Amino acid sequence: MVDAKYEIENIVLSVTYEDTEFDLERLADILEAARYDPEVFPGIAYKSVDPTASFLIFASGKMNCVGARSLDDAENAIEKLTEELRKSRVEIEKEPEVKVQNMVASFDFEREFDLERIARNFRNTEYEPEVFPGLVFRLDEPKVVILLFVSGKGVCAGAKREEDVRKAGTRLTEIIEQQLP
């Protein structure tokens, strides 16, 4: 059995600055290339360049960070933004609480799949090729969803740690090879 190759494509994190409120008008002026149109969306859209990550910033002191391809990149982008806010005299007393909400990874299982056969043999799947060409495979441990394609490629969503992505690839390979040699 060969472990599936994977690559992290996106990490989604929530960022909470406790006891902090942001003046979005002021922040939009401070942050270079920030987009703020309260008539359209109640937050600021901001993109950091190095490392690459995008943020949605809300007046409540909460943010979403998306688009980083590693946890280190996401944490570095959050640190840089926090420093930039502090330099601009935004009162931030504590380090933000950062929580991974979702990791998305691409898989290469290096084999083709008979999706119809998998759908018939496993109850935790959904496959409607007329609607979507991939099979949805739900794992309980780790609790993730993997989209499988005939080509042997896949997409994993719902992981909170990179270890969960690796385990999901190994677990799915084991399940399929045990039941459908």
UniProtKB/TrEMBL annotation:
What GO terms describe the biological role, i.e. biological process, of this protein?
Answer: DNA-templated transcription initiation
Query: What keywords appear on the UniProt entry?
Result: DNA-binding, Repeat, Transcription, Transcription regulation
GO MF annotation list = DNA binding; DNA-binding transcription factor activity
Q: Which domain of life is it from?
A: Archaea
Question: Could you confirm whether the keyword Transcription regulation appears in this record?
Answer: yes
Q: What Pfam families does this protein map onto?
A: TBP
The UniProt entry's sequence similarity note says:
Belongs to the TBP family.
Explain the purpose of this protein.
General factor that plays a role in the activation of archaeal genes transcribed by RNA polymerase. Binds specifically to the TATA box promoter element which lies close to the position of transcription initiation.
- The name under which this protein is listed is TATA-box-binding protein
